[in-house]
User: Fold these one by one.
Assistant:
Number 1:
Amino acid sequence: MKLTKSCRPMFAFVQMLLFASVCQAQVTAIRAGKLVDPETGTTALSQIIIVESGKIKSVGPRLPIPAGATVIDLSNSTVLPGLFDAHAHMCQTSPPDNRDLFSLDIRLPSTYRAIQGVVNAREMLESGFTTIRDVGNNGNYADTSLRRAIEEGLVPGPTMINAGRIIAPFGGQYHLQPERRELGQPEYFVADTKDEIRKAIRENIHFGARVIKIVVDDQEYIYSVDDIKFIVAEAGSAGLKVAAHCMTEQGARNAAAGGVASIEHGFRMSDEALQLAKQNNVVLVGTDFTEKAAILLGLPPPVAKGFHDVFIDRLKRAYKIGVTMAYGTDVFFATAGETRGTLAVSFIDSFVEAGIPAKDTLRIMTTNAARLLGLDKQRGAIKVGQAADIIATPENPLEKIQTLKQVSFVMKNGKVFKPSK
Ligand SMILES: [Zn+2]
């Protein structure tokens, strides 16, 4: 029984009296040796964070610890808000012996993919990702079921903003043959005309999407600026943002001109396209592949090196131009000795290689992503009123960003998921 639920005023007065003694919310006090504020890139020493009912109640030095509070001692660690991955695919996992997503998507039922999602979500949380935006490729709404299960506390996982089915021109990201034209669905929501697009967005929202994901340019025929403006308006009228998968320069230009919230990948964007994105407040979720991740994607090593180099070059240029970026990884592949979380956090290496300062990388992994997801009032900072999504690392990520690969403590919504050793 959840005592907090018993506290709701709808219950009879007698019940309230009976339960009054046990209804006091659980209070936790965290002693933080160092506390990092990613937004300002600053560190405060010897802070105390008081957590009550899943939220941060107060933060400061020398705060009195309430009687009966559970005390968590992180005085030898650096404490910071949980990380974000703005480009995740929980219910898709390609094993080392099969990187062909088309055959996997056809063979695996959504029920099985939901179970894969449960495992991936737990692994993301284990590595310190307390919030993710899941951008589709989840079969027939396995992502919505996973999000609900996490929200209801059935399984552990990050807070999810999920896309439901990806909306795309005919074929989605596959190359079909005319006798099997239906195989692209339900993985993709094929929508070419305005009527089909409107219907796809509305069905998607009805079945639990919290963001609309479109594939702009994986076929020779691509969504136009006019199509994208229509998508942004239709999604926006229901309060949803649009994430646009862009592989080409023209696709990225159309997406930036069409006013999407974010361009995904965008690895071939020219300086002009990046300028346009900046001008239109479009966030770049670069999915900046490390060379190792590119090999795991299934590319032969020399090709993987070239693929990775293109990302690094674009990452450097985007940073120089001043495009707002949010961390996103696109990990959907598995390999021995790694988890979904360890692979996701390994994309930090690309930021290091591109020479992005640690304070900017950390902001990209927290503050910027929280804003993109529309969650910055609730998550992404250790401030009064925010959800208690708190992690700890052995060293200060503002000095050594790689310490994020050794997250030693994870709390989500005030509940300890990974205790500090
Ligand atoms: Zn992706």
Note: Confidence is low (pLDDT under 50) at residues 1-7, 16-23.
Number 2:
Amino acid sequence: MTEQKQKICILGGGFGGLYTALRLSQMPWQGIPKPEITLIDQNDRFVFLPLLYELLTGELQTWEIAPPYTELLANKGIHFHQATVEGINIPDKQVRLGDNSELPYDRLVLALGGETPLTMAPGVADHALPFRTVNHAYQLAERLRVLEESDQDKIRVAIIGSGYSGVELACKLADRLGDRGRIRLVELSDTILRTSPEFNREAAQKALASRNVWLDLETGVEKITAEAIELNYKGRIDSIPVDIVLWTVGTQVASVIKSLPLTHNNRGQLTTTNTLQVLDHPEIYALGDIADCKDTNGQQIPTTAQAAFQQADYTGWNLWADLTGRPLLPFRYQNLGEMMTLGIDNATLAGLGITLEGNLAHVLRRLAYLYRMPTQEHQLKVGVSWIAKPLLDLVKR
Ligand SMILES: Cc1cc2nc3c(=O)[nH]c(=O)nc-3n(C[C@H](O)[C@H](O)[C@H](O)COP(=O)(O)OP(=O)(O)OC[C@H]3O[C@@H](n4cnc5c(N)ncnc54)[C@H](O)[C@@H]3O)c2cc1C
């Protein structure tokens, strides 16, 4: 009798899901038939989010940071299905998709990532832009283009939240807009980058100051309207006219995950074991921004690309071990430090005992991300383009 092929269904093609799929494609399926592996994402392309800012300054192009899944998964033995996940029937092991199809699974990987909450102040959903997808970057670039082509003297941008995204956006926009830009960064606490290493925080403070980015610390947002933003500094309310408001505060788990009858923490993330399996459901794996996970040393895993990428390696391995009757590996997280882009050709990095800022940090950040690109084919194409671009620029001069 022929053994039935197991079905692995991976929901979400970001750092957690796509890299799990790619890891699975490398495993030696001996002794059992190779499982049917399906990756589902609502979009047609993966997005290398840490490089999304570079679309605003033209430093990088969409094809470099957002390659289509069909291209990445060609000849990898992984089926890609573009659809929105609408629900999961856990007792029947079925995924319900927005195109009215249902997908059965034997093993399920949940990697749907986070969303930016747009309900934290009145007017956010109607008048502020989040920054999390290629479409958000396009929307912002289009708003900037219209303002840049207008006869308006100054272009006023308010960025809410001074975590990584807020600070990185402020520096890139300041470089893009130059003297025409009036950029303010609004932060509820008394410092920017509260959780960052001191070195990166100081480098960021310097980069913001040298670009004349205005810092509103200890300031809350009362309301956003089409023309202005109302800020609350220690009880004093000021209304400030703005052209663009960017909202970068918070990450929430999508309702399709929150509504599952599984164990969640108070932020809606799924609680997992250190083998990245959901509690009481060893057939379901969860990783990335939707997972509340402590590694084998009891370290709480941060919601970063770096963590999702490392978890994907273990998830791929553990699925293979699970289906081939081998012991599963407990996840061990290695904090490699953090890197930030601070304007065109400028970055800071701190980790593994190294601290560096400026152009060299920018080059190292690019190389580190090139190394992390999803497939060797894509790495090669992007690497050649990065080497060729400065040479072509020289020839054009
Ligand atoms: C602008 C930005 C910059 C960042 N920079 C850094 C950085 O420099 N370093 C770092 O370590 N981390 C960074 N992060 C955080 C990092 O990108 C995330 O922690 C990481 O992407 C999490 O991986 P994930 O697989 O959980 O989710 P994601 O990579 O977000 O992938 C989730 C996938 O699920 C898909 N999806 C969601 N809902 C559905 C649905 N209902 N149906 C179908 N598909 C769905 C999405 O389209 C997406 O492809 C950044 C994040 C942002 C937004």
Note: The longest strand covers residues 36-41.
